[in-house]
Design goal:
CATH architecture of the largest domain in chain B: 3-Layer(aba) Sandwich
CATH topology of the largest domain in chain B: Rossmann fold
Order of helices and strands of chain B: EHEHEEHEEHEEEHEHEHEHEHHH
Strand order of the largest sheet of chain B: 3-8-9-2-10-1-11-12-13
Number of helices of chain B: 11
Order of helices and strands of chain A: EHEEHEEHEEHEHEHEHEHHH
Helix content of chain B: 25-40%
CATH class of the largest domain in chain B: Alpha Beta
Radius of gyration of chain B: 23 Å
CATH topology of the largest domain in chain A: Rossmann fold
Largest sheet of chain A: 9 strands, mixed
Shape of chain B: elongated
Number of strands of chain B: 13
Oligomer: heterodimer
Largest interface: A-B, 61 and 63 residues
Distance between the termini of chain B: 19 Å
Strand content of chain B: 25-35%
Radius of gyration of chain A: 22 Å
Shape of chain A: elongated
Strand order of the largest sheet of chain A: 3-6-7-2-8-1-9-10-11
Number of strands of chain A: 11
CATH superfamily of the largest domain in chain B: P-loop containing nucleotide triphosphate hydrolases
Number of domains of chain A: 2
Chain lengths: 294, 300
């Protein structure tokens, strides 16, 4: 592993294997508490395929960046149809028919790896930019920003958009990152820079199954993490038994309550509606900060 | 032989109830093939509990590995790699640091391996993902497990779809039910491609509506029949109304409003579908109607 100098920014990813367990619910309420405490905080919405964080806050757009990736383009005049670029492309993005003197590139499959460019001896390949999404920054309060990664619909991989959003927002004391669901590349791109990961789950068989996958992934990455159980009271006890057995810290438990679900459904924040939850989320933030410093 | 009908359940937003609905629809059929295309966080097997008779390894891609005894530390690969997957790591012997691969960043493009003058970089296949075919109580099931952190979930989804079609042909099933992944990216596209019908499951929340719009935009690019089901519709009747309004404007039929019912979770705990666990409940009645509609729907 590489040794990177640890910056003073505390980076906390809020993630879950299963979708819809309450990642955005936790990250938006934590953010609201940090804003209330006048902390220098950024919330980055890394769920670039379905960004939802900004529905919960009113802010002013202060920056808008178009995110592009390079895609190869082939100059038919210079091409001799040798097919080496096709052989070097690992993503089947180049179709070359030697006898028919036909070559074409499928932009949606191009990963911007540069292999075809290196392969071509005839200078027939160049690159152009293709827009794949945008990163929008909102000012929410004096010291509080939201940065949203938003991939265009149907883009092959949202990872470059996520990475762009994460590099834009290094200037804060606390950085909260709302992760995309699953355990594949978009999730990895979000948790790799994190100092600590909060896994949000629900005590159901689906929730437990997906939590195990997330835990396995984070253990492989050697990331410290803790668990928040949402909708406690639904489902069964197997989740608690498993957490006990694995000695995984349970950071917070939020009971299933139709009132909470309703508040969320109206894009309102629980910490603004209920004093005791305001205190509970403030404790959660302290809890996470302590875990980061360990 | 009539063409097999492929019904894809999608949602955009996660956790809206895709899998619970897909499972219930599957057990209401008599002879069906189910394809779990949420390969990142597959759950359908927990309810359908298939008896797998086929397990196959899926090569999701390749990752670069440096042979330390061949590497001369020239650093040419560092200049070529666009994924920041090669760096110099502190080393007790090599002052400028040892050239090393950052596994989580490697995209498997092969470029470093091809340009290395010493042939010191090998590409190793990623073979920890698997796919399965099994029998369950109402037919066959194809499902998969993507190894953590691996790419190409779209390719694995296509593999599951292809197997589901083969299985349907060989077993004479006339319907394939596809449980799709969340999101609007490559895995969702791979789940939609070639399906006849898509059922988008949403919930009456701000996020649910936002994500519904995105997934409908994606589905609209395919020549496919689109229907919407609102789950937990009584949670926020105003928002449910907004969803209906939006769908009407877009000319997309809403074919069911499911109430929030804890029986849904109780059924899951018992490894059953809600229509098996509580067949007489209101929610089961609505799901049966949705099922009848989808199966007998011959409009084009």
């Amino acid at each position: 592993m590489s040794v990177t100098t640890k910056s003073s920014v505390m980076k906390i990813a809020i993630a879950s294997g299963k979708g819809g367990t309450g990642k955005t619910f936790i990250s938006t309420n934590l953010f609201a508490i940090a804003v209330r405490e006048n902390r220098n905080v950024v919330l980055t919405d890394c769920d670039a395929e379905e960004p939802n964080v900004t529905e919960f806050f009113h802010g002013r757009v202060i920056d808008r960046k178009t995110i592009t990736q390079n895609v190869a383009q082939i100059d038919q005049e210079k091409c001799v149809y040798c097919g080496i670029c096709r052989d070097w492309c690992s993503y089947n993005a180049i179709i070359c028919l030697q006898e028919k003197k036909h070559i074409c590139l499928i932009e949606d499959l191009c990963h911007d790896c540069g292999a075809c460019l290196a392969a071509c001896q005839y200078g027939a390949i160049s690159e152009k930019e293709k827009t794949i999404g945008e990163v929008i920054t909102f000012s929410i309060a004096e010291n509080a920003l939201i940065t949203e990664a938003r991939a265009h619909i149907g883009v092959y991989s949202p990872v470059p958009v996520i990475k762009a959003a994460l590099t834009l927002t290094a200037d804060a004391d606390i950085m909260l990152m709302d992760a995309p669901p699953g355990i594949s590349c978009p999730f990895i791109a979000t948790v790799v820079p994190a100092d600590f990961v909060v896994l949000v789950t629900e005590p159901t068989p689906f929730g437990l199954n997906d939590l195990k996958l997330s835990v396995q992934t984070l253990e492989q990455l050697s990331k410290p993490f803790g668990v928040v159980i949402n909708r406690a009271g639904l489902g069964d006890d197997r989740m608690y038994e498993w957490l006990d057995e694995k000695k995984i810290p349970l950071l917070m438990k939020i009971p299933y309550d139709k009132k909470i679900a309703q508040i969320y459904s109206e894009s309102r924040l629980l910490v603004n509606e209920d004093l005791s939850y305001g205190q509970a989320f403030a404790r959660l933030l302290i809890n996470i900060e302590r875990s980061c410093q360990k | 032989m009539p063409k097999v009908k492929e019904i894809c359940i999608l949602s955009g937003k996660g956790g809206t109830g895709k899998t619970s609905l897909a499972a219930a629809l599957a057990t209401l059929c008599d002879h069906v093939v189910v394809a779990d295309c949420d390969v990142d966080a597959a759950n359908l097997h927990l309810v359908l509990n298939p008896d797998n008779y086929l397990t196959e390894i899926f090569i999701s891609g390749q990752k670069a590995v440096i042979c330390n005894n061949k590497c001369t530390q020239c650093g040419l690969c560092l200049e070529y790699c666009r994924f920041k997957a090669i760096e110099r790591c502190p080393d007790p012997v090599i002052a400028e640091g040892r050239v090393s691969i950052v596994e989580t960043s490697c995209d498997g493009c092969w470029l470093c391996s091809r340009i290395c003058p010493e042939n010191a970089i090998e590409m190793v296949p990623q073979d920890k993902s698997k796919w399965f075919v099994g029998n369950f109580r109402k037919g066959k099931m194809v499902h998969a497990r993507l190894a953590p952190g691996e790419e190409n979930s779209g390719k694995l989804v296509s593999k599951v779809r292809e197997q589901a079609r083969k299985t349907a042909e060989s077993s004479g099933a006339d319907t394939i039910i596809i449980d799709g992944p969340p999101g609007t990216g490559c895995a969702a596209i791979a789940s939609l491609t070639g399906a006849d019908t898509v059922v988008v499951v949403t919930e009456p929340t701000g996020s649910g509506l936002h994500d519904l719009k995105r997934i409908l935009e994606l589905a609209g690019r395919f020549h496919i029949k689109i229907y919407v089901v609102v789950n937990k519709s009584d949670l926020n009747p105003d928002m449910t109304e907004q969803i209906h309004h939006y769908c009407k404007k877009e000319k997309i039929p809403v074919i069911g409003n499911l109430p929030f019912d804890t029986e849904m979770v109780r059924a899951m705990v018992q490894c059953q579908t809600v229509t098996e666990w509580a067949p007489g409940s209101a929610i089961s009645g609505i799901i049966k109607k949705i099922h009848r509609f989808l199966i007998t729907d011959h409009t084009r």
